[in-house]
Structures are given as C-alpha cells and as structure tokens.
Specification:
Blueprint lengths: L6 E4 L24 H10 L3 E7 L10 H17 L6 E5 L22 H10 L7 E4 L2 H10 L2 E5 L4 H9 L8 E3 L2 H11 L1
Parallel strand pairs: 1-2, 1-4, 2-3, 4-5, 5-6
Helix pairs in contact: 1-6
Length: 192
C-alpha cells in the first residue's frame, strides 16, 4: 500500500543529534547546529519528516523507554519552538542480544528491517519511491534499499567509519555521501 506523499526518513543519533554512545541522560541530547534549518528546508519543500531510530540501549539495559520518550519530547519541543515540523518519530527498543527479556528479540522494526518506515508510511500516506533515507550507518542505507527510497550516508556520528565500509566494498554504496545533515538536505533538494 503506497501513498502519494514524499518523505525524508532521518536517523536520530549521529544524524539529527550528536552521537554520544547511547543517550543515558537527557543532558546528552544536542542537535547539530544545522539540524533545525535543514529540517525546515525539507518542510518548506513539502516533505513529511520521519525520525527512525534504533534504540537498542533499552534492550541492553542502558536506558528505559521512558528516557527515550523524554528525549523525543525534547526534540519535538525544540522543533516546535523553531517552527519546524517532525511528522512522526518511530523507534525500536529491541536487540536480539538484549539483557532485558521483554526487548531481547529479533523484530521487524530494527533497522535495516523496514518495520518503522512501513508503520510511518501507512500513517502518513508516504510514497517510498519518491522518499529518502538519511543516516550515519550502513543499516540506514540498507533500510533505504529495503523500502525503495534514495539514500544518503552522512559522515557525522559513525558515518566516517561506515563510509570506510563502503569504500572497502563491505557495503553497497548509498546514492550520496554528505558531510552532515545540512549538505544531505541540500543534495535532496537538488535531486527532487
């Protein structure tokens, strides 16, 4: 089932906000300097904005789902105050090697599996073929391949390490590699 709205699926840690090896305290949450203006440019171009984030720290016992939700409430507060719209946030708390039993599983939502994107697409009437996935990990790019969207790998967060995997032939290349969210969005807007 496909809609008619185009979207940009943004990874959270390392793409929207500074990667800080699992956010275990709300004080660790910091946006990149160009995050708000970049998302606003996508808003202005008519894209739905969906944050899709693996939060395996829940399954690993590093944080609670309550903290993940607090972080997302803070993100939405920051965007609202800046006149920026994030249409939906999807997260996956699972990991097959988790230590918290209720989250220790292989699921259909942990990237690169398409579960989070498919849920958002159904709710927001998204056309995957005219959409984009932006993230700092190969799993983000693989999500893009799984849903038929174009892909951008950013060098922020774990991106530099992941670009190395692509360069060594250990992962399929994305449609584009960008320095961060701002240049990624500029490329998307040029590509439309």
């Amino acid at each position: 089932m496909s809609g008619n709205r185009r979207a940009v699926f943004l990874d959270r840690d390392g793409c929207v906000n500074v990667e800080d090896h699992y956010i275990r305290d709300i004080k660790q949450f910091r946006l990149y300097p160009d995050t708000l203006e970049s998302i606003k440019a996508l808003n202005d171009a008519g894209f739905a904005i969906v944050v899709v984030t693996n939060q395996s720290g829940v399954a690993r016992g590093y944080m609670t789902e309550e903290l993940v939700n607090e972080v997302h409430e803070l993100l939405l507060k920051m965007t609202r105050e800046a006149g920026v719209i994030i249409d939906r946030i999807e997260y996956c708390p699972h990991h097959p090697e988790g230590v918290i039993t209720q989250y220790a599983m292989t699921c259909a939502c942990r990237k690169p599996a398409p579960g989070m994107a498919l849920r958002a697409a159904k709710e927001l009437s998204i056309d995957m073929k005219s959409s984009y996935v932006v993230g700092d990990k190969v799993s983000d790019i693989e999500l893009g391949f799984a849903i038929g969207a174009k892909t951008v790998l950013v060098r922020t967060g774990f991106g530099e390490r992941e670009v190395g995997k692509v360069e060594r032939g250990e992962a399929h290349p994305p449609d584009h590699v960008a320095e961060g969210i701002g240049p990624a969005v500029a490329w998307i807007l040029d590509d439309v």
